[in-house]
């Protein structure tokens, strides 16, 4: 049903797009019709695939590293008060700087290869993951913390070990749904980082291809690249969504129980 | 180990609970509470509560009277106010000798019934006692649901898991805050029978607003009422628990308690 709706919506947009180009009779370099874009997609399939692969690798690495760093930061901020007091304002401040503004710097420092794009993706993803996870960690149900405190009283392991166990068995699992929300947002915005990085300076990638096509007025190729990028982002989002639902099977049923 | 293995089951079933649990049977607890203040309002003052060793003490009272606060002070969830004291009959600290059961089951939604029982050991970094967990799961009649997640169980089953988890620690003192109040009447009745069986020999504080529950399970019953709240004289119904509600003595106690609670309600309104 969900799939059908998506297909119908897509078809509708393509139809309206086609009608507009036919009615207005715009030249192909202003707004190519869906058919021309489709043709460009087929004609340049190899070129687009090659560049899409570069972008996909950048997004994936950026996502993995961003999630990793975000989780570690959230854990440190939640567990140690000084880290929160000193680092958290810095984290907020870092978000005030537009990624676009530092893209040239990153290219300058890290070169024209994949590295600056991965770092850009990482920077964009880091914040929603950190904030999402941290929110979850800070919101463990007090009743559970009370119970866990009581359960840990009789043990003779050290304070640090108990803290680790509290995180491992209670706080982190309870925070996973929030982390999942953060990761979903991250998956949707990760391509922005990679593409911006490619615009500033690159020798391959969908962003690079689009810029290149635009400069040479190959608007149909630009649209084709854009479609592929959109498809990639959607695919990534739904893939991650499905993975998260699979990893947290108790969530979908639990939310239907108002008594708890 | 197979849960249905007959020899294994015989060994654990014939072993009295008290042998496996820490300490001798029964540690009494005395709480002497000077004043408990919430938001500038005195909820409780000059309160002396005695939990007799190996007995179930029921604290009965209307909602909002401060019953749960007493339990939370004992559990350490609310810091002990100045000039108040908690003492155990053996003179030692209560630290690590308390178990707590809430009105909500507080089960970990991602963990199986078995894993929910083993959480205490895991949190303490000990090797989880699988044998004891399996025995308790059998005692609460959930051996066929051992690997189920809580969201696949009914409310009564979940509360049975919570009861088993509370007993899992083998603490001599149990604090129970309206443990069965979220259940329907029939399920509650059955769970009271089960609790009566499994709680024998423990020092229990059972908070409830249900006179029936207090009379079925309480060795000693106190009615908490008024503002700031005071304890009634101890009511000690005869007979062993779980008591039969159709018994004439039960009915008499029931009417007396209801009259008392109703009188309070009238005074308040």
Task: Give an overview of the whole structure.
The complex is a heterodimer of chains A (260) and B (269). In chain A, α3 (45-79) packs antiparallel against α4 (81-96). Chain A contains eleven helices and no strands. The longest helix of chain A has 42 residues, at 159-200. Chain A has two domains: 1-31; 32-249, MetI-like (MetI-like fold, Orthogonal Bundle). Chain A is mainly α. Chain B is of the alpha/beta class. Chain B has one domain (6-268): P-loop containing nucleotide triphosphate hydrolases (Rossmann fold). Chain B is 37% helix and 20% strand. Chain B has nine helices and nine strands. Chain B has helices at 6-14, 17-20, 67-75, 113-124, 130-139, 155-168, 185-198, 211-217, 248-268; strands at residues 29-38, 41-51, 56-60, 85-88, 98-101, 173-177, 203-208, 220-225, 230-231. In chain B, strands 5-6-7-3-8-9 form a six-stranded mixed sheet, with helices on both faces. Chain B is globular and about 50 Å long. Chain B starts with 5 loop residues before the first helix and ends with a helix. The model of chain B is unreliable at 1-23 (pLDDT under 50). Chain A binds chain B through residues 141, 143-144, 146-157, 161-162, 165-166, 169-170, 173, 248-251, 253-254, 257, 259-260, and chain B through 75-77, 95-100, 102, 104-106, 108-110, 119-120, 122-126, 149-152, 155, 169, 171, 182.
Q: Please describe the biggest sheet of chain B, giving its number of strands, its sense, and whether it closes into a barrel.
A: 6 strands, mixed
Task: Quickly name the level 1 CATH class of chain B.
Answer: Alpha Beta
Distance between the termini of chain A: 30 Å
- Kindly provide the radius of gyration of chain B, computed on alpha-carbon positions and rounded to a whole number of angstroms: 19 Å
What's the total count of β strands of chain A?
Answer: 0
Estimated radius of gyration of chain A: 23 Å
CATH names the topology of the largest domain in chain A as MetI-like fold
In percent, how much strand structure appears in the residues of chain B? 15-25%
Taken together, the total number of domains of chain A comes to 2
**How large is the share of residues in beta strands of chain A?**
under 5%
The helicity of chain B comes to: 25-40%
Uncertain runs of chain B: 1-23
């Amino acid at each position: 049903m969900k799939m059908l709706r998506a297909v119908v919506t897509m078809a509708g947009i393509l139809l309206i797009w086609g009608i507009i180009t036919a009615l207005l009779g715009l030249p192909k370099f202003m707004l190519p019709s869906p058919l021309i874009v489709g043709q460009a997609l087929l004609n340049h399939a190899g070129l687009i695939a090659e560049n899409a692969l570069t972008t996909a690798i950048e997004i994936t690495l950026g996502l993995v590293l961003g999630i990793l760093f975000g989780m570690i930061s959230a854990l440190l901020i939640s567990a140690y008060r000084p880290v929160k007091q000193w680092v958290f304002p810095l984290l907020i401040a870092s978000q005030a700087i537009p990624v676009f503004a530092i893209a040239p710097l990153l290219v300058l420092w890290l070169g024209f290869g994949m590295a600056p794009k991965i770092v850009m993706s990482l920077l964009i993803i880091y914040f929603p993951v950190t904030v999402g996870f941290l929110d979850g960690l800070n919101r463990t149900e007090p009743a559970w913390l009370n119970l866990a405190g009581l359960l840990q009283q009789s043990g003779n392991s050290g304070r640090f070990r108990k803290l680790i166990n509290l995180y491992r068995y209670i706080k982190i699992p309870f925070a996973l749904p929030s982390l999942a929300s953060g990761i979903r947002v991250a998956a949707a915005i990760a391509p922005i980082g990679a593409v911006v990085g490619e615009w500033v300076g690159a020798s391959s990638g969908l962003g690079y291809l689009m810029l290149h096509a635009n400069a040479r007025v190959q608007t149909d190729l630009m649209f084709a690249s854009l479609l592929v990028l959109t498809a990639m982002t959607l695919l990534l989002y739904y893939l991650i969504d499905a993975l998260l639902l699979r990893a947290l099977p108790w969530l979908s049923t639990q939310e239907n129980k108002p008594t708890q | 180990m197979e849960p249905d293995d007959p020899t294994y089951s015989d060994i654990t079933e014939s072993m009295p609970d008290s042998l496996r649990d820490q300490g001798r049977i029964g540690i009494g607890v005395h709480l002497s509470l000077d004043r408990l203040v919430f938001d500038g309002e005195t909820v409780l003052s000059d309160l002396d509560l005695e939990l007799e060793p190996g007995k179930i003490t029921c604290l009965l009272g209307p909602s909002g009277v401060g019953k749960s606060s007493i339990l939370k002070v004992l559990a350490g969830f609310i810091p002990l106010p100045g000039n108040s004291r908690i003492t155990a009959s053996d003179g030692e600290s209560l630290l690590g000798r308390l178990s707590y059961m809430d009105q909500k089951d507080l089960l970990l939604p991602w963990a199986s019934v078995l894993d929910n029982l083993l959480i205490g050991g895991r949190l303490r970094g000990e090797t989880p006692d699988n044998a004891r967990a399996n025995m308790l799961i059998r005692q609460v009649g959930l051996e066929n649901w051992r690997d189920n997640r809580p969201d696949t169980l009914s409310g009564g089953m979940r509360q049975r898991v919570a009861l088993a988890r509370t007993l899992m620690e083998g603490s001599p003192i149990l604090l129970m805050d309206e443990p069965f109040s979220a259940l329907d009447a029939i399920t509650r009745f059955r769970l009271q029978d089960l609790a009566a069986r499994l709680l024998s020999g423990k020092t229990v504080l059972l908070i409830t607003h249900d006179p029936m529950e207090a009379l079925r399970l309480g060795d000693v019953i106190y009615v908490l009422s008024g503002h700031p709240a005071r304890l009634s004289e101890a009511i000690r119904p005869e007979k062993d628990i779980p008591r039969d509600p159709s018994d004439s003595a039960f009915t008499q106690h029931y009417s007396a308690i209801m009259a008392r609670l109703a009188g309070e309600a009238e005074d308040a309104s």
